[in-house]
Amino acid sequence: MSPDEVDEAAPRRLDPRTLLLLPFRVGWGALFAGLPAVLAWSRGETFNPLPVMIGLGLVLIVMGVGGLLSWLTFTYQVLPDQVVIARGLLNRSRRSIPAERIQDVSITRGPVSRLIGLAEVRLETGGGEKDEGVLASVSLAEARRLREVLRRRGSAATAIADTDAAAVAPVEDEAVLFRLGTGRLLFLGLFKFSLVWIAAIFGLLQYGSEISGLDWEWWLSRLRDVEGEVRARADPQLGLGVLGAAIALGLATGVGRTVLRNFGFTLTQDERRFRVRRGLLTRSEVAVARRQIQLGLIERGPVSGPLGWRAFKVQTLGGGGEASGMQELLPFARPTEVAPVVETAGLPPFREGELKRVSPAHAVDGVIGFVLVPGLMIAVAGAFFWPALFLLPLTAAGLVVALLRPSRHRFAATEDSVQVRRGVLVRRDWTVPHGAVQTLTVRQGPLQRRMGVATVRIDTAAGGAAGGPHVHDVETPRAADLVREVMARVHALPPRVRPTPPPSGDGST
């Protein structure tokens, strides 16, 4: 082994500048966690900042010492056949991640990390644990070195590419499949309308009253005065002005959140993987190995969908740190842009002509969930606050959605995949290749048994996604036929493409 290789394999700590991030990681959390308790303790008395400052100072000192010890006891090694991550002072752990399990290295950079030249490195593997291989903060140069070294070794371990550095194409040479331009990004934000700012304002008024010296009851009385003034004047223009301001703020919030998340969104690919880069303040870079893609999902929004816009997501074994392994490859694209990416991902096209409807009994579940339960909640709330009763007409919209559900929920077992369509306002088209089907489960609740229907749950090796590609309320005999048909197609596949569970064990000791 050469001196360079010996040095490369030696245990390393995270970058010392990691300690500069401690106030940002624990300080604000301690502040927001302790603020409600401090306000409750003060009980409306004059706010005294000295005890709070002393308390927060002690908390920060304790957490700072803990952060220093954590930094001193955390090491990582890049060995020829594995990556070893050791941590802990009293409870010492040593985790070994085989090189052949590492699909790629994702790099994320928050605003403070970018300012001081640090990055978070996440090893993308076939496991589902989010912290399976995470280096919280290394230098940007070290992050790029790790990515290239591990890509070379992962390729060598799976006999996909040569071990020579020139055999791995630089990230800059990856082909660009999709780029979200500024105009389209802002247009996407308009469909992400959000009124979360209202909750934020009222939260600040409620929890910040002691510090700011403002009285919560005073604000409520001012709101009542405004309400009385609007009623007295009965001016429709004033009401429309208030409504317009609320809508404008909601649109601004949606655009702002969208820009922060998807600024500079770029999808690239090479021979083995997709790569997604996005973010304004927090810049992330996530790799998606094509051979780990388990299913595809095309979403059509209630307003953007009829205008011809789609979002495309895939579920992977590693998941890129996303919930249920879902990773967004296209946030806002035309069908003509989605189709080639679906094909590149190795997923069959969605065949609408082969879909079959579920049982009409599916509407019963919608009536219960969208009409009876909300109506009961509104009635109870109206007993204490009568204006809540004005929400009752909304249950009529819930009834329409419930009655439309059976016609919008469809499924099919095609020659190469299971395909499921669901949703009235937001339509979701799921495609699960037969080779990715891990388990099929038939479930019946008490009401379903009385109606003679069942739910067929379809899970992959990456696990079940919330609201995943499951077929709800299909007649029991048809549910059994669906399971038999899919299982027959799975067993007919060559052994190399049959579903296999993710590797068990990671070498932890």
Quick structural summary:
With 509 residues, the chain is an alpha+beta fold. 43% of the residues lie in helices and 23% in strands. α2 packs antiparallel against α3 (49-73) and α12 (362-384) runs antiparallel to α13 (394-408).
Defining key terms:
20 strands, seven-stranded antiparallel sheet, disordered C terminus, 509 residues, alpha+beta
Explain what you see.
The protein is an alpha+beta fold and 509 residues long. The protein is built from 15 helices and 20 strands. The protein has helices at 3-9, 22-42, 49-73, 111-116, 140-157, 182-190, 196-207, 209-212, 216-233, 236-262, 335-344, 362-384, 394-408, 446-451, 476-491, and strands at residues 75-78, 82-87, 93-98, 104-109, 118-124, 134-139, 175-179, 266-269, 273-278, 283-289, 293-300, 310-316, 326-333, 356-357, 410-413, 417-422, 427-433, 437-443, 453-460, 471-475. The strands form four sheets. The protein has a seven-stranded antiparallel β-sheet with strand order 6-5-4-10-9-8-7. It has a seven-stranded antiparallel β-sheet with strand order 13-12-11-17-16-15-14. A three-stranded antiparallel β-sheet has the order 1-2-3. A hairpin with a 3-residue loop joins strand 15 and strand 16 (417-422). The longest helix has 27 residues, at 236-262. The chain is globular, with a radius of gyration of 27 Å. Mean pLDDT is 79; it is low at 1-6, 158-172, 207-214 and 503-509.
